[in-house]
């Protein structure tokens, strides 16, 4: 928790430090202007825009999976609901693109609450198993509800009237900015404490006044809405969506992969995972289609064995080599442990990361 | 002295097992109530009901006249009843300070209004004796330290009634003496306390009144001195000497 301070005449909320704000503003500016100054080809430019969207979706998955510790294998359900609702609204009512995405997102968020509110009572693997069911059931419903989704033929979106694929780069960037801000807020504000407490020990959290249902529901709604908006983006990007692709189990897995490779539970690690994911999908899939699953498998094994915090963890190690000493609770982003493991894990964590 | 937390005919059954059987209890403002009894007597279960974690099978618990039982653990905390755990449950990967801050931010609303979170948390850590460990992880503390953290976190919720579950057990004599003094100071600050304890000198030194549970039932209530000399209580802990009354020996 950073202390509240008065910086000049602008008082920042306690969860933002001036350094972070400036760094963030610089990064956004750089990304915003990059296509105007760098000689990127259209293809690369568009892929980067798509990557921004995947980053936002992965960050959103991480709110539930990493911050709260409830691993969802069914997030494609919200991705698909968002995409199809957005597409339908644009086709039926000519709704402007961004409004369509927002509407799709909110419906997806509501859908997440519908299945999630009762399901979040389950902990750990039991919740995850339930989400597999949710994802698959949604896919089947969507495939058979061909009036709404176009069934196996899918829906084509009009190519005119909305932003071009080229312009979607900046729309993706805005999505990413929103996701980053929310990620930071969810972790660093007092609500971040509640989420970490729930992740560590939900019963003990309730015993000191944290309402687990309220905060889990809130995060689930937020996560579902953002992923739904990303689904809308994807629909506009491809100008075509079909249920098999949007609601697939592979897609649910992809969110998990991005977050885990990037650093599950860290604030921004998932963005790195999204980059890895897009690189593998776009540049390896075409040439080495047999290998990409194996590659994911190897990556996951390496992460589980050597660096549970993924790319973010590697970055942390590099920084420590240059003398950076993290706070004692840097491990709080990592995978949740059971209460029985608590003593050993925290002692092990401190052996690695204790302050001087 | 007005009764602050009152349990009326509280029962909690688990199937056929009567873990708590028709227990009446009360603790007054700024009073320390000792809760003792042999292992398995139902003391922790009574705490769980009083703290709202589990609902009573029958009966109810009232705080200043309003029902607090049968809702939820976090609701009870907001109303002013907070419990610690027999086996400490700190948030392992949060710092000591953040552990306390969770209690402060999510505790009783009236307690947290218009106050500086960090300041209050550090003041509590100062009071409890953990100020120097504010940025450590719970795993780096000794058992005594973790027990202090458990109490500090509960205190941060601003409870009107604090339920302490065997906080002195497992401490060496020096630590235990310090803890007894700490509990006394908590009461002096105005918080009522119910304490489950097996460490008899702590119970005797601290309690204004004591109630004794055995097999889920209350078998005695009174001052520490009264209770300790009560034959029913002695029998509950030590059993009865069948030979003393001239009856046939046969079973313990």
Could you describe the 3D structure shown?
The complex is a heterodimer of chains A (356) and B (252). Chain A is mainly α. Chain A has one domain (51-339): Orthogonal Bundle (ABC transporter involved in vitamin B12 uptake, BtuC). Chain A contains 16 helices and four strands. In chain A, the strands form two sheets. A two-stranded antiparallel sheet of chain A has the order 1-2. Chain A has a two-stranded antiparallel ribbon with strand order 3-4. By secondary structure, chain B is α/β, with parallel strands linked by helices. Chain B has two domains: 1-77 and 162-167 and 192-240, P-loop containing nucleotide triphosphate hydrolases (Rossmann fold), CATH 3.40.50.300; 81-158, no CATH class. In chain B, helix 3 (96-106) packs parallel to helix 6 and helix 5 (117-128) crosses helix 6 (143-156). The longest helix of chain B has 16 residues, at 173-188. Chain B is globular, with a radius of gyration of 19 Å. The termini of chain B are far apart. The chains are: A mainly alpha (356), B alpha/beta (252). At the A-B interface, helix 8, helix 9 and helix 16 of A face helix 2, helix 3 and helix 6 of B.
Give me the strand/helix succession of chain A.
Answer: EEHHHHHHEHHHHEHHHHHH
Largest sheet of chain B: 6 strands, mixed
Which assembly state applies to the chains in this document?
A: heterodimer
Strands across the major sheet of chain B, in which order?
A: 6-7-8-3-9-10
- Helical amount of chain B: 25-40%
Secondary structure elements and pairings:
The complex is a heterodimer of chains A (356) and B (252).
Chain A: E1 6-7, E2 10-11, H1 18-37, H2 42-68, H3 76-93, H4 97-119, H5 124-144, H6 146-149, E3 155-156, H7 168-188, H8 190-200, H9 202-207, H10 212-238, E4 240-241, H11 243-246, H12 249-263, H13 269-284, H14 292-306, H15 310-321, H16 342-353
Antiparallel strand pairs in A: 1-2, 3-4
Chain B: E1 3-14, E2 17-28, E3 32-36, H1 43-50, E4 58-63, E5 66-67, H2 73-79, E6 81-83, H3 96-106, H4 109-112, H5 117-128, H6 143-156, E7 161-165, H7 173-188, E8 192-196, H8 200-206, E9 209-214, E10 217-222, H9 224-228, H10 231-238
Parallel strand pairs in B: 3-8, 3-9, 6-7, 7-8
Antiparallel strand pairs in B: 1-2, 1-4, 4-5, 9-10
Helix pairs in contact in B: 3-5, 3-6, 5-6
